[in-house]
Design goal:
globular, TIM Barrel, alpha/beta, eight-stranded parallel beta barrel, 10 helices, binds phosphoenolpyruvate
Length: about 250
């Protein structure tokens, strides 16, 4: 079956309502029907900008996602947002377990799994992030660490339609450094090989690569076997760069 590439932009804590509306509007206008059969283009702005981005997308096919959700449906959780709130704000996806949340907020695999389960229950597709640190790679433990995170972070019911994996080596995020094509291929192949044993239906899940994806390396990365898209940080803040990355798919 042909791959439906998912190119997801993680805006992190960037943007104002004016900038967000302009960026989303430019992307929505450029992402037209003929593109849409083999591509999903997604933007994940900060939570307070979801409404303005939703309005800028209008009836366009650009998808809207969030950067995090709480595992509970509601309650006394100051500063958090539930998956249901994100769904009602027009989101289709939510990133969970990004390394910046694992580091800044001490999120562990069990919490990431609980968030992914909550996202699915609300009708959202969780993008579950996993990835090794530089020290773990230099120790030769990258595959072991990533497969450990995978098995502990994945919800019990996963399919090609209700969850996505993002392999993001921590040392490649925002640094301009990327693994070799061979290293990406080996890791994605290891993840693909592990999926059937982890959740019923998981074998067809899409596996995104993330970490310093730019217009000039996207073509090479997206052509690697078992790379089904990209999670893009910095380069997603510029419409031209983000669209060039999407256009680099094989
Ligand atoms: C990210 O934040 O998930 C990411 C991959 O960032 P960057 O593309 O800037 O490395």
């Amino acid at each position: 079956m042909a791959i439906r590439y998912l190119i997801a932009g993680n805006w992190k804590m960037h943007g104002t309502p004016t900038l967000a509306a302009a960026l989303a509007g430019e992307l929505a206008n450029a992402f037209t029907d003929p593109d849409a059969h083999d591509l999903e283009l997604l933007v994940c702005p900060p939570a307070p900008l979801l409404a303005v981005v939703r309005a800028a997308i209008g009836s366009g096919k650009l998808l809207l996602g969030a950067q995090d959700c709480h595992p509970r449906e509601e309650g006394a959780h100051t500063g958090d947002v539930s998956a249901q709130m994100l769904f009602e704000a027009g989101c289709s996806h939510v990133i969970v377990g990004h390394s910046e949340r694992r580091t800044d907020h001490g999120e562990d695999d069990a919490l990431v799994r609980a968030k992914a389960v909550a996202a699915q229950a609300a009708g959202l597709v969780p993008i579950i992030c996993i990835g090794e640190t530089l020290a773990e790679r230099e120790d030769g433990r990258a595959v072991e660490v990533v497969l450990g995170q995978l098995s502990a972070s994945l919800p019990p019911a996963c399919s090609a339609y209700n969850a996505v994996i993002a392999y993001e080596p921590v040392w490649a995020i925002g640094t301009g450094r990327t693994p070799t094509g061979r290293d990406i291929a080996d890791m994605h192949s290891a993840i693909r090989g592990a999926l059937p044993g982890l959740a019923t239906g998981a074998e067809g899940m899409r596996i995104l690569y993330g970490g310093s994806v730019k217009p000039d390396n996207a073509g090479e990365i997206l052509a690697i076997a078992n790379v089904d898209g990209a999670l893009v940080g910095g380069a997603s803040l510029d419409a031209g760069s983000f669209l060039k990355i999407a256009a680099s798919r094989p």
